[in-house]
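Crash report, auto-generated. Payload:
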Amino acid sequence: MKTETTIQGLTASLNPARSARKIIGFVPTMGNLHQGHLNLVREAKKLCDVVVVSIFVNPIQFGPNEDFDSYPRTLEQDQQLLADVGCDIVFAPTVEQMYGNKPRLTNISVSEITNDLCGLQRPGHFDGVAVVVTKLFNIVQPNYAFFGQKDYQQLAVIRQFVKDLNIPLEVIGVPIARAEDGLALSSRNGYLSPEHRQVAPTIYQSLKAAEQQLQSGVDLDTVLANIRNTLTEVGFVIDYVEARTPELQKIHTFNQDLVLFIAAKIGQTRLIDNLLVKYTV
Ligand code: PAF
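Recovered output after restart:
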């Protein structure tokens, strides 16, 4: 496995694969990898000849009071994990390599689906994601790009601008990887104190309970209120508990498939999760 830190180096490493028309798979990450990321690489390996993983903590997707400075940077450990799952090339650029030292004058902004859910609490976040992911797509030029469904809204935003801008690749969403107790894997789980780690799975438990309630006929508003109560009782501060269609449109009645979304803070740690609930008549 090679690690490249410059765009030039990455291009040189990828050129033989490009000339041989090999299928290139790409997994963008911010590092501090866990099984969720490694599953993305495993999926990429099934479809692709060469797998590139980027590790880049993207400053422009963090708000001023967010955790950019403290975001865990664990490159050596990540490289070892990636080598073990058969990643071919790690791309770990510096901020200067990605953004240069002159101001960036171009933005990429997806409307409507970013005005809601995480977009409300994190203004500018999805623009920052859209810019860096587009730059990475242009640098790596993959055939397939792999993203986790835990960041459901992010995945929807990426699918949208890939379609709108005719970016020539296919986006693949990979199911959420969970700990045995149901907690969705996230680099931010490392911030949890032992006590908070114990209550964190309540998020998933409340989603599963909600699924059951919906399927047994409890109305959607009551189900959402039940989730809010359960989480508040164990100490979460709720950012949002919402239901949307799989395309992220508002929904008030369980009369089609829907996705339940939670973002909530326990201590200083903000966790997100979601669950697709199937409508069966
Ligand atoms: O999901 C992430 O880790 C990041 O938002 C991404 C897609 C790598 C862009 O920085």
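Post-recovery validation: Residues 28-30, 58, 61, 129, 132-133, 151, 154 surround pantoate (CB under 6 Å).
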